Amino acid sequence: MLTTRRRSRQINGLARDRFIAPTSRPLIEVLLVILCLCLAIGCGRATAAGRLESEPLRIAVYDLAPYGSVGPDGEFQGVSVELWRRVAEEIGRQYKLTPVAQMDAILAGLEQGRFDAAIGAITITPDRAARVDFSYPAHRSGVAVALRKEAGPISALVAYGLVAVELSSLIAGMLGLLLAIGVAMWFIERPSRAAAASESSVVSLRDGIYWAVVTMTTVGYGDKTPKTPVGRFVAIVWMLSSVALVSLLSATLVSRLTAEQVESSAPFTENDLAGKKLAAVAFSSGAEYLDTLRLPHTKYGALREALAAVADGHADAVVNSVGALRYMAAERFPKALRIPNSLLAPAYMAIALPDKSPLKKPIDRALMRITASPEWRSLEDRYFGKQPL
Q: Residue 10 falls within a domain, yes or no?
């Protein structure tokens, strides 16, 4: 009896082996493979994290003052460099700075893993955000424009002449009235016998026009005066009218010139860009802005070259980030360029990072603390002044 039961159990065990084992073994093998992969990935991440913690961070510095540049002493300087030094101290990391002159080289370096982060005048734009990641905003910025400054006696004379052309109808009317009064005075005074006996009498057409001009300009030499009652009445009317006409012309000229000065200091908008010869730095936020508006422009390799083109008259305006424009115009072209106190488009600058960088969270936390401090706002004022960005 016991032997029969043992044989039955053996038969059932063989059946289970035949029907269960073929399906369970591949599943177990798959699970083992997945487990091995997870362990390998975890080890890889641990190794990468260890490398990141042990090696200095490779930081690209976009070479553009006042955000980041190499000084005469070979040391890095700029507001973004100052900020990064505080961030690196906050997160406890060593770093090595590398100057890079072209924005496209910075973006390519982040994509290819040659840089761990990039600092400087790096504005957050849609095109750049599609290629790299960005930290919490580090600086307020925006797209602005630099224009040629019209100053000096020649520009003043040109402006005065343009206003005079606009008022040509008023000036022509005054000249016509002056001639008419001169002719009328000669016609009234000519028949007078008393007038003929005096050297101060208006006895010719030339005398009549001369008298009208002298009276209109309120000089009143007295060498030519009307002698008849009608002539004196016309003289009184012309004196009073001349004062009004000269005051009207002077006030109109001054108001037009003042209006031009006010217009030159008015906010500059994107509509004002139309019809102008525009310049921008290649791969800059200004170039991306003009490309978005589909406005034709000339691209330069450096901001200094673009601003020089405007100062020399080869271009009408440069579009770029406002901080760099103000700094470069004040340092290199203080008498030739002006920056309207307005933005074409607001924007923010940040630290550029490779996509899914493990540095993003610690850097974000450090930036939030640092940029909110009064000490940091005071430092920014030293670089940019009190002008609002």
A: no
- What gap in Å lies between CA 314 and CA 160, rounded to an integer? 25
Residue whose token pair is 């043992």: 6
Distances (CA, A) of 195 to 204, 206, 223, 317, 326: 11, 15, 13, 66, 71
The mean pLDDT value of the chain amounts to 82
Residues 284 and 235 in one domain: no
Q: Give the domain CATH number at 173.
A: 1.10.287.70
- Report yes or no on 330 lying in a domain: yes
For tokens 């005048």, what's the residue? Answer: 121
Q: C-alpha 31: how far from its chain's center?
A: 59
> Rounded CA gap, 147 and 272, in Å?
11
Spatial separation of the C-alpha atoms in residues 290 and 277, rounded to whole Å: 12
Q: What's the pLDDT tens digit per position in 233-262?
A: 888 888 888 888 888 888 887 777 676 665
Q: Is the pLDDT of residue 98 over 50?
A: yes
- What's the full length of the chain, in residues? 389
Taking the alpha carbons of 321, 325, 326, 331 in that order, is the dihedral positive or negative?
A: positive
Q: Rounded CA gap, 50 and 77, in Å? A: 30
* Tokens 């750049």 sit on residue: 128
| Residue numbers of the domain that contains 134 | 55-138+350-384
Last residue of a domain, one of 264, 289, 314: 264
* Residue showing tokens 């006010």: 262
CA distance 89 to 73: 23
Same domain, 279 and 357: no
Q: Looking at the 3D structure of the chain, how many domains does it have?
A: 3
Pairing status of strand 139-148 against strand 317-321: antiparallel
Whether residue 192 is found in the same domain as residue 106 = no
* Tokens coding 96: 């090595």
Instruction: Give the angle 202-178-171 at the CA atoms, nearest 5°.
Output: 160
Cβ contacts of 64 within 8 Å, gap of 6 or more:
120, 121, 303, 324
Q: Is residue 50 one of the residues assigned to a domain?
A: no
